[in-house]
Amino acid sequence: MEVYSYDEVSSTNDVAKKMINVLRNGDIVWALSQTAGRGKGERRWYSPKGGLWFSVVYKPQKLCEDPNIYTKMASVAVVKILKRMKIKDVGVKWPNDIYHNRDKLGGILTEIFTKSHENVVVIGVGLNVNNMPPEDVKNATSLLKITGVKLSLSQLLKMISAEMQRLYNFVTLRKRNVITNLWRNNMIVKKGHTIKVSDFSGKTYEAKVVKVLSDSLIVERNGIKERIHPSEISI
Ligand code: BTN
Description:
The protein is an alpha+beta fold. The chain has 5 helices and 11 strands. Strands 1-2-3-7-6-5-4 form a 7-stranded mixed β-sheet, sandwiched between helices. It has a 4-stranded antiparallel β-sheet with strand order 8-9-10-11, with no helix packed on it. The chain binds biotin. The site of biotin has 21 residues, from helix 1, strand 3, strand 6 and strand 7.
């Protein structure tokens, strides 16, 4: 496993894609800042110095039938490391967000494609670490904001990428239920929480979480229980 580190790039996902022929399974592209960081839905991802911005490349023989599994395993890896560092109240939110309470701390951007008969999965990880999120960005936070302490980006990268590799092995071993269970257990939303639901029909309402299942949640509203998909949680 090789780490290709840069001072500044457009986007580590884009650099990884350009270098795909030389990159091997598990290789990493890391940059101290990005000028064109991308988020979900082609949104701009603010990536100044101080944050952790990197992409891991996997070249699986066979792609997992659940494409969300790669994003899930990366977000679980980040959350597990943060919890190991005794940072409380962190968790995953469907499908690619990392939250601290109700504030966004980071996100994952996974891109899957085939190049020269090879399956390629590029997992971009963005985590606000020593940077302060801009004042005008609502509900964003960073590890510095939470703890008041600056952290070593290279140490964090080492720990998170090692955990990603460990979890990725479960995917290749066709044990993706291990990841699904970890994902469920590391969800920011827990039993007893009141959450906002934006359901598939476009309705928005508040409900209480009664049960967290591996692929759905049971919520209660006005005494009526309903099953919702994690993507319907809007926090
Ligand atoms: C999101 O929450 O919408 C996903 C954000 C993903 C950001 C990371 S930073 C490293 C990699 N390079 C990018 O351009 N995006 C991802």
